[in-house]
Amino acid sequence: MMRVFSAFVFGALSLWALGQPEFFQDLAYGGKPFNPGDVGLVMKAALRDNDAGNTDPIYFTRLSLENLGNAGPGEIEWVEVRMEDPSGKTLLLAQGSGFPLFEVLLGRPAEERMIPDDGEATLTVWVKVTKNIVEGHTVQPKLVLGWAEGEKGGEIVLTDGAPEKFLVAGSFSAKILPGPAGGNLNPGDQFPVAEIEVWDTADVNPWGLDLLRIRIDGPKELVWILDNKAQKVEIPAGRDHVLPEKLFAALDEGKNVLTVHVRVPESFYPKEPVAVAPTITLVLVEAFHEQTFKVSDPVADRVLAAGFEELSIEVAQAGKILDPSTRSLSYSLLKLADRDRNATPLILHSLRLRALGTVAEIATVEVVDGGGRFVGFGKGIKDAIPLLSPDGKPLLVLDEGDVALRVNLTFSGKLPLGGSLLLAHDLDVEEKLPRDWLFRSDALTNFRGTQSLVPSAAVFFGKPTVKLAKVEDRAILSTDGETIGFVSGKLSVQPWEFVDLSAQGLSGYKLTTNPLEDGLSLTLEAGKTVAKAGDLAAFVPSLKPVRVP
After folding, report:
1. What is the pTM of this model?
2. Minimal CA–CA distance to 387: which of 358, 342, 350, 345?
3. d(CA 494, CA 275)
4. What are phi and psi of 437, to 5 degrees?
5. What is the pLDDT of residues 4-13, one digit of tens each?
6. Residue 135 forms beta bridges with which residues?
7. How far is the first Cα of the chain from the last one, in angstroms, to the nearest whole number?
8. b/e map of 145-169 (b: 16 or more CB within 10 Å)?
9. 200 with 252, same domain?
């Protein structure tokens, strides 16, 4: 056994001494994807002189390099083969404008293309791609290296075990996020309305993302602000905006959220709600590679002229007919609610009632809140009724709060027959942080104005009648209604072909008639005359002259 073992050891030493090919291995370097214009490492291999039996260095005599991937000549700007020793010193073995590459190394200084005896080195292949790379194309180098050691020589063949891919459209991206939640905005408010996530995918370059241009399509009356977490920039709405300087968007291979804010000018009081759901077009750049992304806010906000966002009025007797002798009436119930994104409270300063019907003779007005507290009183409706809490302070409604106000009326005497009671309710509302409250950045609303509510129908008192009666040689149209302002109808006469009919408005009413086949159509208007009960019009018939043959 001992003799056999000794022979084996001697044989192994002889193999090394004969100068067999040295150790070489592709390290299957798998790099990150390449974006347009990137420079990066695509192949890495280890070489070692592993022979204890001689003292000869290894010299490299020639090399050839080809691409087994599918990247074309127009996608590669240059190729380099480099050699690095254990100390970190790097030498350029060969370079060219693309694949394939062939280089004879014999004319180069020996120290620039050798591995010392029992030394080692690392071979690397680097490429720079053009701006015209194709999505999904690959680079996979195959390196053939001629070598010599003493009296021996040969070739080393190294094939990249991990091809590198090109990434164009997917090199970076952007998407709209579902938040922030939409809501109501008031004059003076500033809140985020859209969030865009941008990110740089893994790549060989060290560059982050910048914003070059932006377009925000939304209401031009608002002030639009872009926030990248480092600075805020105002963006004009409705046009492409080139930033004076590139704006940071995301770090290399990182993510960031760009936030779009809206500031509502204090002077902007829209008559109707204005929808805020911007469409945002971003032009992002990574070094010199640009991409355009277009996103839309999925959750709309809206701008209201401040005050209460939810208002309703209920009149239980609307459309009904009450007795003219009614002396008191629980007329209306107002329901008011603050529903907005700011944290500003509201103050109800006063309530003014305006008569839109024929009844305006109101003795007193009493206002009571939903808790039964007496908060306002007025004699008649000529002046606004101050609204105060029981402690004498302004009637305050907290942010996101609500309040109910019941309006009770009394009448001084009998109401006119047929009178209509229809009152508009004008509220003097202020939405502003009180001076003695602590400042809040989400309570910048500054509004003072009127919010009005009108019932859907009037309350009527009594049911007036209109009748036509013969009085001597005339027909008189009259009414017992005391508030009749307009009458229309048709007067039929038989036999119409033998009768002439003259008509006249009475008591200041304006009469208009038009002939029909069997009579007249008529309208009566009180005009500026105060409507009252009595005669409205007179009609005098007479026979038409008859020609006797």
Report:
1. 0.66
2. 350
3. 63
4. -100, 155
5. 333 333 233 3
6. none
7. 167
8. bbbbbeeeeeebebebeebbbbbbe
9. yes
